[in-house]
Amino acid sequence: MSILVVGSVAYDSVETPFGKEERILGGSATYFSTSASFFSDVNLVAVVGEDFAQEHVDFLSSRAIDLRGLTRVPGETFHWKGRYGYDLNEAQTLETHLNVFESFRPQIPAEYTAADYLFLANIDPELQMEVLSQVSRPRVVACDTMNFWIASKPEALRKIIERVDIFIINEGEARQLSGEPNLVKAARRILDMGVKTLIIKRGEYGVLMFNGASVFAAPAYPLEEVFDPTGAGDTFAGGFMGYLANTGDVSEEGIRQAIIFGSVMASFNVEDFSLNRLKRLDYGEIEERVRYFKAMTHFQGLPAAGSPK
Amino acid sequence: MSILVVGSVAYDSVETPFGKEERILGGSATYFSTSASFFSDVNLVAVVGEDFAQEHVDFLSSRAIDLRGLTRVPGETFHWKGRYGYDLNEAQTLETHLNVFESFRPQIPAEYTAADYLFLANIDPELQMEVLSQVSRPRVVACDTMNFWIASKPEALRKIIERVDIFIINEGEARQLSGEPNLVKAARRILDMGVKTLIIKRGEYGVLMFNGASVFAAPAYPLEEVFDPTGAGDTFAGGFMGYLANTGDVSEEGIRQAIIFGSVMASFNVEDFSLNRLKRLDYGEIEERVRYFKAMTHFQGLPAAGSPK
């Protein structure tokens, strides 16, 4: 099964307490695709400018990411510049140059329109809707967004939410979208908007999944070195959707398992700048960390017989 | 097995977005004892003033808490006044009247000195040391502290840390004590100070346990209504120590299980002011919520045979 992702391919300039890098490969679709490529074929739809380096095209191709949907147009590639403080939870955006991304109108190549798994990375919800109108009938549509769209295009976003199966946002976005400080109530309100499965990312605190019937709580991998958090959310989504597409199991059990694989991928990604850690990651390391998650969350529960006073 | 706890019995005046209560029963030893009493006998050592109401003595007695160590002296009972905002994570202290607690010098009754399980609630580490010098050889000593003692009595606190088996603090305290923003590194530094088991409370994000060999991550129960967070940490510790004392299983497996029972007790406590929720709690509800925790954290892990590409 292959996955279609529509989002950004970008250059990032990132400053963390541990170092500083200029114009490194980034973008939501880049992180998503690279992460998903460990599990599934990926078709990428995005736009870059004339400055987009051949080495980065070659890298994505080397991950078996299909780039027929990557359009190159006159101008410069989307460029984001940000800084993280010691807590590494929230990026401070220093500069955003949309460049060629400003006039991005996603055109889904004909050979991609029958995609079974679709991820709408964080772009204008009106463009996310245009993507939906170009695909036939995906088995699973997952979607991300950000505070900017929640505030500026609430109507368009609500229409998207009604049409997606899995909505993946962070804690602050869940509170903002629902207008509800309590996260459990916030989740219920968002489910009421028409989402079947809501995944709330909480950074170093892990992930919560709500589907109306039950709640799944996954911790984050306890990292000693968070080098650069950029792309963690998209890397999570890539591992999550990649695993779903690989197994085809979209039951609650399958979704829980995919959340762990997504969490594992994100935990690797933040260990280095850009996609550097994923570039040297092998599947054995992924399996080892999945086993770590299982061990880290294990407890006996209620004994089969007898109970304390 | 019985537990000995030394800490505060207090009156609290609490304001939350959901209501306001004056001079309600509180204090670290009160929350701890009541929670632990669901699992084990508890011997309480604390001090109250002449204003401490008989109904509160009666309540503690009704929970089979042994009060021979509860001293009544001239003056008023410790009184804390605080307020919580909508995020309910951090209390804003409005007033602290130590009153009779100011000159508290814990005297452990002779019949308590052979205690197998000892909890040193958050009091001056020099007093915690005095308690340790009065007990013979407890099987498990657990201890709490707070930012004030970390800053004002670091030497005395370090001596306590060397002598306890289980140190239970919150995330901010772990960072403050270790001088390390990364929580995994902070935990390692605290273990290096001589603690065998470190439990870090993260409020609505759950609990992390470190012991040098492994990490255990427990989520918090996803509550729709957090009415009053006062006493959550001590209620956690009470459920945790109560369960340990009940089963006698202080293996890592036993400690993990006890963390879940502690988390369950804390999740009930915050559903109402003071100890009101624990007053009407029955053991069946505790078991039901333990099962919920098990279901909430379940995922398959790596399949026995075969793995994704």
Question: What would you say this structure looks like, in words?
Answer:
Two copies of one chain form a homodimer. The model of chain A has no long low-confidence stretch (mean pLDDT 94). Chain A has one domain: UDP-N-acetylmuramoyl-L-alanine:D-glutamate ligase, CATH 3.40.1190.20. In chain A, helix 3 (125-134) links the parallel strand 8 and strand 9 (140-143). Chain A is globular. Chain A starts with a strand and ends in a 12-residue tail after the last helix. In chain A, helix 6 (171-178) packs across helix 7 (183-192). Chain A has eleven helices and 13 strands. In chain A, the strands form two sheets. The first copy, chain A, has a nine-stranded mixed β-sheet, sandwiched between helices. Chain A has a four-stranded mixed β-sheet with strand order 3-2-6-7. Chain A has 309 residues and is α/β, with parallel strands linked by helices.
Which protein chains are joined by the largest interface, and how many residues does each one contribute? Answer: A-B, 52 and 52 residues
Shape of chain A: globular
CATH-defined fold name of chain A: UDP-N-acetylmuramoyl-L-alanine:D-glutamate ligase
CATH class of chain A: Alpha Beta
Question: How much helix is in the residues of chain A?
Answer: 25-40%
Number of strands of chain A: 13
